[in-house]
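Researcher: Last one for today. Full complex below.
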Amino acid sequence: MKHKILEIINEIRESNSLPTLDFITEENRLREDLGLTSFDLAELTVRIEDETDIDIFDDGLITTVGQIYQKLNI
Amino acid sequence: MALFLKDSTGEYSYDNLLTSINGSDGYCQNLQTDSLYSFFLNLIVALVHNRPATLLDSDLSLEEISIIDESTINKRDKIDNKVFNSIEEVINEIWKSSSKITIFTSGTTGQPKNVVHTIETLSRNVKKHTGHTNDIWGFAFNPTHMAGLQVFFQALSNLNPIINLFEESREKIFGLITSNNITHISATPTFYRLLLPIEMSFPTVKRISFGGEKSDRKLYDKICGMFPMAKVTNIYASTEAGTLFSSKGDCFVIPESISDKIKVDDDELLIHQSLLGISDNFIIEKEYYHSGDLIEWVDEKNGVFRFKSRKNELINVGGYKVNPHETEEAISNLPGVQQVIVYHKENSVIGNVLCADIVKNPNTEISTIEIKKILKQKLQDFKVPRVINFVNSLSITRTGKVKRK
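Model: Here's the assembly. Have a good evening.
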């Protein structure tokens, strides 16, 4: 699943004409470090929800990759 | 001298602003800029010289607004130099301005439509009195949109500082609210949603306004916790009519001053034409404009109501209204696309996320990433579907129309 999240983030970055990443770390911040906008965060939630049925943002904002892993228990 | 504007590019005082206004020997009728200071300065110069101006988003492409001739964008027109002795003189001149200010709205068909406003419709709800002297505004809207203009005129007329929070990160916004002692914030529910979860509270903030999309009770309660000293209100402002109603809680009150100009027909809110800007695109029936907003009365006698939904198909994505037909048109023009339908899915971050189902020609090799990349060059970011599915066929309704989900 962690690999899938990297894949989704890379697809979002690619459509924004940003270079793809070889890896992400738990400390990476979604906005500042990975360059995701609020529209990108919305896409990320929908794509993760499609895979897992979990809305990672349902009770507030997630700011780091580690928080996504926590929310998904992975 | 008092601060006028602070953003990531620097700080500008009202003195700097006055010097820039007095030094202006030209302005752009169709300015497209990333700089908030240049945008506001150009608008003020247009107003005090009674010249027309069209407010363009910095990321709007010409394909989206064919009524504007490309050669006129950022073309500087010469104007006679006018010298003002104080910023108060400038503000007085702005209120007397006969400028026609054009803004764009998502039309119900095709491309964005232009609406022409005067200073009167743009500043209808601006309150100027000594009680507002110490207000400090967090600016959280796109400056070309009606709600952003309301904040701008409110702050300017009381000589309040404007701190730009628009599209900043959550940490940066928290830092800016605290370090600048921001007292007033007006923003979309999406903006507030991105401030959650509550990790700290901001007692300097006295007023919080929601506008631009339907808010939910859960968010409202959380925001009250984050800004414990703030009075929280909702504002109904539209590109067509400016600010009309504001209220406490999730209800709106029709002010007495305009109560004879608002009607409700078949649950739809109708606005008298005298309250509107001017546009060839408005359809007026018996002097009233059909807003497309469906409401329910909470207390009809006292003009208290709540919004239910929208009658037309515009989709609210993070406070921006998207016309699905415009996005569909852009996608249909891509090579190898046979059929497309654009729809929305509810989303916890931005209210709704835009989706598209596409039927490709069998021999076409185009990926969803490529489609998004091409669309981003043709459309503003919020109009680009974030979820794209390739499907074999679209569901058709019994009337033969493609079914919107």
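The first strand of chain B starts at residue 3 and ends at 7. Chain B touches chain A through 29 residues (CB under 8 Å).
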